[in-house]
Design a protein that fits this description.
Blueprint (H helix, E strand, L loop, with lengths): L4 H12 L12 H9 L4 E6 L2 E10 L3 E6 L2 E6 L3 E6 L1
Antiparallel strand pairs: 1-2, 1-5, 2-3, 3-4
Length: about 90
């Protein structure tokens, strides 16, 4: 298609002003608080991929670090279904 140059420039100008998509992951403060209450203690985490047993060694707003048998697992908070202290 042949567009007049001023129409093409106008279309390009509008395209560059479109808002950018930003991924937003909500923070679940109650789960974070529950994990902080068991920091340094053994837990069972049920995730969307299965259960994980280990010791909570670090808690961040978006993930928790669980250590089991000398290995560290980084689990996203949004993937946790339930937490059970052992």
């Amino acid at each position: 298609m042949n567009y007049p140059m001023h129409q093409m420039n106008n279309q390009m100008h509008h395209a560059s002003q479109m808002p950018q998509c930003i991924m937003v992951y909500p923070v679940d403060p109650y789960v974070v608080e529950a994990l902080k209450s068991v920091l340094g203690k053994p837990v069972v985490l049920e995730t969307t991929r299965g259960a994980l047993n280990g010791c909570v060694i670090e808690v961040k707003p978006d993930h928790v670090v669980i250590e089991t048998r000398g290995r560290k697992f980084f689990v996203r908070i949004c993937e946790i279904v339930w937490i059970m202290p052992e």
